[in-house]
Specification:
The chain is of the alpha+beta class and 201 residues long. The protein has one domain (19-160, 190-199): Electron Transport, Fmn-binding Protein, Chain A (Pnp Oxidase, Chain A, Roll), CATH 2.30.110.10. The chain has seven helices and seven strands; from the N terminus they run αααβββαββαβαβα. Strands 1, 2, 3, 4, 5, 6 and 7 form a seven-stranded antiparallel beta sheet that branches. The N and C termini lie far apart (46 Å). Mean pLDDT is 86; it is low at 161-176. Residues 23-178 form the General stress protein FMN-binding split barrel domain. Pfam families: Pyrid_ox_like.
Length: 201
């Protein structure tokens, strides 16, 4: 039997009929509702470390990159410099929607990028150290941008509420039919490159 036959849930849930823009719109809905994702990096010893981080934006309707403002002195920067492959995941408990970004993280201290994504709330994560240099503002030398450029994005978009999902699962359990109360969507590398090309024009 083929993998498709052995995994009827994925076969039933996958939606390949959407345009890249439609997929991005659904993705943005999840990211904006959840607000905080888990950025996972790999240490030099091979351990995977995840931490909660809130991305700035999205600021553009076709944006697929994730941008984080972070403290350059934190260990995650050492891990990104050791291995730039990262994952960022989001989960919305209220809907069961989730999203997973797999890609490359790039570090920058470009002042224009920092200014574009800086907010007054961000300063609280840095604090003023009282030395006249590390003031916790956007000019603080600790402030850096982590931009995650995805190779692929996969996400689940629920098409039924929690009650409808529970009914679908219950019916599947009784009848033997596969439950799929939502859609699995993939934004491929080719689609990401297409959208990034449109954004650069």
């Amino acid at each position: 039997m083929s993998n498709q036959e052995l995994d009827p849930y994925t076969a039933k849930a996958e939606n390949t009929n959407l345009t890249p823009q439609e997929k991005i719109q659904g993705l943005h809905t999840i990211v904006q509702n959840v607000k905080t994702g888990m950025l996972t990096t790999r240490s030099a010893s091979g351990q995977l470390h995840a931490r909660a981080m809130a991305p700035a934006g999205p600021v553009d309707p076709n944006q697929v990159n994730l941008v984080f403002i972070a403290n350059r002195a934190s260990a995650k920067f050492d891990e990104i410099e050791n291995d730039a492959h990262v994952n960022v995941s989001f989960y919305d408990e209220s809907t069961t929607n989730w999203a997973s970004y797999a890609g490359i993280a790039k570090i920058s201290q470009d002042k224009s990028k920092i200014a574009k994504h800086w907010s007054s709330a961000t300063a609280a994560w840095f604090g003023d150290l009282g030395d006249g240099v590390h003031k916790g503002d956007q000019n603080d030398p600790r402030v850096a941008v982590i931009e995650v450029i995805p190779d692929e994005i996969r996400y689940w978009y629920a098409t039924r509420g929690k009650v409808g999902q529970a009914v679908d699962v219950a019916v599947g359990a009784v009848t033997g039919r596969t439950a799929a109360p939502g859609e699995l969507r993939t934004i491929t590398k080719a689609e990401i490159q297409l959208v990034q090309g449109l954004n650069s024009k």
